[in-house]
Amino acid sequence: MRQVDVAVVGSGPAGHVAAIQMVRLGLSVVLIGPAHSGKDGRTTALLGSSVSYLERLGLWDGIKSKGQALRVMRLIDDTGRLLRAPTTEFDSSEIGLEAFGYNIDNNSLVSALHEGLDAVDRDLLVEDQQFARSVALGDDYASIEMEDSSIWQAKLAIAADGRNSLVKEAAGVEMRRWSYPQSALVVNLHHPSSSHNNTSTEFHTPTGPFTLVPYRDSHTSSLVCVVTPETAQELKAMDKQALAMELERRAQSIYGAFELLTEPQVFPLAGMVAKGFHGQRAALIAESAHVFPPIGAQGLNLSLRDIEALTDAIVSKGEADPGSEQVLSSYGRSRISDIWSRTAGVHMLNMSLLSSLPFGQGARTAGLALAKMVPSLRRFMMKAGLASPSRIGSVGDAANQDV
């Protein structure tokens, strides 16, 4: 049996950042979870407040060098419906930013974060690259049993172990769950004839977004194609050349011919939000607390704000006991508005594409039309997408007087 101040259960991106942050507070930490497989074909867009937070932790330079800047967000209505929105572009320079953020493939992201572990006090950090077998939460400590039957005791267990979290289960926190009649086909593409010019392009289609995001260089993009589950499987079953041609057609040939760089993967779309964000000696972050469909690039950005909020609660309530009820209650309260506002925003955008009702279509069309015509509204929408509700006003420097 070994003892630490904090046990971070889960070794994905959120787990790595949480471990580094807790060590920065001077707490002893164990990071629990196997080494990354390096076989994740997805990418992550790190935006706004996530960039500034990772800069403060000294992690950003290593991540930025492996990603592509996102300077323009372009939305194209491809629904074919009577009420269609005009093509609308959001440019980061309008709010005083060089870029909204950077897109990076998940394998490179975890690699960069793992390198970041070497920059912290290794006397305070231990990596235990096993899966946790069970978790028990008591009055004074959390107890995590490992695969080899060894046990870690910690004042605080941070649940970064995903939607099927052992920590969440031990805390008895229930989830609100829902599903969508959609699946996302994810693949990375090469388009040799045209550059993306650091522009993310999202086509709004009747089955969901079709989004091309800058990837490793100026002539590669990551694609998230949201369609019905049946169509997703049909696309995945195509040979590479046929699939590349079909995706080029759906992209209206904006970048010319496509070549597939990775094997296509399919993920069913669903949403989950925890009914509470903490339990006895436990804090829920990332997908143990909230799960989003891949729309609006909110997943990891929201997870990093979880870690920031937990850090603020530990500092403001005193670091002697990071798992005290006072700390965890403060953390839970602080996350409600941010998580639920993001949940509602992503859900409404997705449903506005699926809805056959004129009201839903009209609201989306009117919102984008106004954003195109009214600069102050457009700037506000950009800021709202980059930070929590309480920090919108602090994003960027340009034209603040009009927002």
What's the short story on this structure?
By secondary structure, this protein is an alpha+beta fold.
Tell me what you see in this structure:
With 403 residues, the protein is of the alpha+beta class. It has a single domain, classed as FAD/NAD(P)-binding domain. It is built from eleven helices and 20 strands. The chain has helices at residues 13-24, 49-56, 60-64, 106-116, 166-171, 229-237, 240-250, 299-317, 325-354, 358-373, 375-384; strands spanning 2-9, 29-32, 43-47, 68-70, 72-77, 88-91, 101-105, 125-128, 132-137, 142-146, 151-159, 175-190, 199-205, 208-214, 220-227, 259-260, 265-274, 278-279, 282-284, 290-291. It starts with a strand and ends in a 19-residue tail after the last helix. The relative contact order is 0.17. Mean pLDDT is 89; it is low at 397-403.
SSE map:
Elements: E1 2-9, H1 13-24, E2 29-32, E3 43-47, H2 49-56, H3 60-64, E4 68-70, E5 72-77, E6 88-91, E7 101-105, H4 106-116, E8 125-128, E9 132-137, E10 142-146, E11 151-159, H5 166-171, E12 175-190, E13 199-205, E14 208-214, E15 220-227, H6 229-237, H7 240-250, E16 259-260, E17 265-274, E18 278-279, E19 282-284, E20 290-291, H8 299-317, H9 325-354, H10 358-373, H11 375-384
Parallel strand pairs: 1-2, 1-11, 2-8, 5-13, 11-19
Antiparallel strand pairs: 3-7, 4-7, 5-6, 9-10, 10-11, 12-15, 12-16, 12-17, 13-14, 14-15, 17-20, 18-19
Helix pairs in contact: 1-4, 1-8, 8-9, 9-10, 10-11
